[in-house]
Amino acid sequence: MVRPVIAGNWKMNKTVAEAIDFASRLRNALITPPEPEVIIAPPFTALHAVAELLRGSPISLAAQNLHEAEKGAFTGEISGEMIREAGCEYVIIGHSERRTLFGEGDERISRKLRAALSADLRPIFCIGESLREREEGQMQNVVERQLKEGLNNLTAGDISRSLVAYEPVWAIGTGRTATPAQAEEVHQLIRDWIAGRYGNEQAAEMAILYGGSVTPKNIADLMRQPNINGALVGGASLDVGSFIQLLGY
Ligand code: PGA
User: Fold this and answer.
1) CA of 175 to the centre of ligand 1 (A)
2) Cβ-count burial of 76 within 10 angstroms (0-12 exposed, 13-18 middle, 19+ buried)?
3) Pairing of strands 122-127, 163-166
4) The CATH number of the domain where 225 resides is what?
5) Which CA distances in Å does 65 have to 96, 112, 122, 218, 223?
6) Cα 78 to ligand 1 centre (Å)
7) Which residue puts its alpha carbon closest to atom 2 of ligand 1?
8) 198-243 pLDDT, tens per residue?
9) pLDDT (tens digit per residue) in 136-179
């Protein structure tokens, strides 16, 4: 059984003060640890302060991106080691906003995955097709290409530290969620692909999260699908009350 994971991706939202306020409310609400693993992904500037506040709590921290180099002349970038030291266990990699707005391709994303793993971070590797790709019948090709190129050179050990998030681009921030059946179809495809490449055991143990307009209203139906092990939530993770509701499905 894969432990479910609910992760909140704050994107470019919340100042340090706002992040601290959210994290302390969340911590107080989770005196009894909930069933799912709980992850929040504040912006870089708030990571260290939030990590200090969450020390000893059941809540884990993720960064939203990293640079693939260990260090050097990369003005404005942040390395895996910096993220790890700031108190993160996870890092989101290959989010569709990084792919489309910041030009990150599969090859770059693959280097970022390796950089995360060598910095002892657990990657949350995001994949998903656009509306056009789905309408042209390319969903499976796109998802399999992203898996193949992104996970290129990763070992079975690396895979056991990685999570995959299926986020159809047409469902992100649009209010248009994939139906549970649509999401399940792709999750099954992802698990089969992992099984074919790394074996049944790795596939069975991998947490595959769904993302794209997840809300307290639609999460329960999604979580009932056998191959959906959690959610990566944007908009609905920004309000602490709504995030706490999501944790109870
Ligand atoms: P959304 O974002 O929940 O606001 O659709 C999800 C994501 O981008 O991870």
Assistant:
1) 9
2) exposed
3) parallel
4) 3.20.20.70
5) 12, 9, 12, 27, 26
6) 23
7) 234
8) 999 999 999 999 999 999 999 999 999 999 999 999 999 999 999 9
9) 999 999 999 999 999 998 999 999 999 999 999 999 999 888 99
Integer Cα distance of 136 and 118 in angstroms: 37
Q: Which residues are catalytic?
A: 95, 167
Q: What is the length of the chain?
A: 249
Question: How far is residue 239's CA from residue 61's CA, in Å, rounded to a whole number?
Answer: 17
How many separate domains does the chain show?
1
Range of the domain at 130: 5-247
For 142-162, give the DSSP string: HHHHHHHHHTTT--HHHHHT-
Ligand 1 in reach of 165 Cβ (< 6 A): no
- Token pair for 20: 């601290």
Per the listing, tokens 């947490």 go with: 207
